[in-house]
Amino acid sequence: MDQDLTRAETHFAFGRNWAEYAAKITEAEVREAEAGLSRLLGGERLDGKRFLDIGSGSGVHSLAALRLGAREVVAVDIDADSVATTRAVLSRFAPDGVYRIERKSVFDLDPTEWGTFDVVYSWGVLHHTGDLDRALACAARMVAPEGLLVVALYRRIWMDPFWRWEKRWYAQASPVAQARARWVYVTLFRLGLRLTGRRFADYVAAYRGKRGMDYYHDVHDWLGGWPYESISPGEVSARMARLHFTPIRVFARHGRFWGRDPGIFGSGCDEYVYRKI
Ligand SMILES: C[S@@+](CC[C@H](N)C(=O)[O-])C[C@H]1O[C@@H](n2cnc3c(N)ncnc32)[C@H](O)[C@@H]1O
């Protein structure tokens, strides 16, 4: 029988991974998260703005929003461990911030309950909800008139069918089997880097520059990130037009083979900033 993939019980344990990652966060990661958010906002601050973080994960980007001056941050995640981790990170790094954290699915967000937000941010989340199209529409309706929707979504790759199969397996595999899969992945990745003249150690050290993230936690997240969907920039553009949004900034990579990359080591996220009109 087909599972309802919008239910948290069918999902990869994202929150446990975020709890481990968050234990290692320092000011350096927080600064990178702030820089990553600031880049998406075109260098503008969030002074006086209400900010909604859907799928907050570790909470480090909710923290970045507070550091960028947001008047109020609301963070939600479907995973209880992500919610607890977001709470721990905000109380540790922003004890005086104005924020609210709740366990809630994007599908249950209701603008009549909390009002709408100047910025709705959902990085690397909506493709893991089990219904990307509906999740995008639910996130969009939380945006205030003239407000921004900032999302990052997995781009389509030729190996999507393989990764769908792999993630479904990994998400329910034993910790030992998962550790073996990570070893195979990292070994092949190292080999790939060597063949292209790059050093693995340099790659891992520079990884923090990607929004304050950590390579090994991202490997676990990538291999296990189930449910999984992907989308092309053209499809995003059509859906956002239907939802009455206009593009402000798009950071998308165009694949080398008929518009798509093979995706041997996975996909990457394209980032989109849209304004509600
Ligand atoms: C890959 S993580 C991204 C976390 C964070 N946004 C970041 O950029 O680091 C995906 C997160 O989305 C959450 N998530 C998945 N489905 C969700 C849903 N229906 N509603 C809210 N959050 C959801 C997961 O629990 C997980 O914490």
TrEMBL record:
Residues of the Methyltransferase type domain: 52-151
GO biological process: methylation
Record key words, sorted: Methyltransferase, S-adenosyl-L-methionine, Transferase
GO-annotated molecular function: S-adenosylmethionine-dependent methyltransferase activity
Highest taxon, organism lineage: Bacteria
Regions annotated as coiled coil: none
PANTHER family: METHYLTRANSFERASE, UBIQUINONE BIOSYNTHESIS O-METHYLTRANSFERASE, MITOCHONDRIAL
Protein name: Class I SAM-dependent methyltransferase
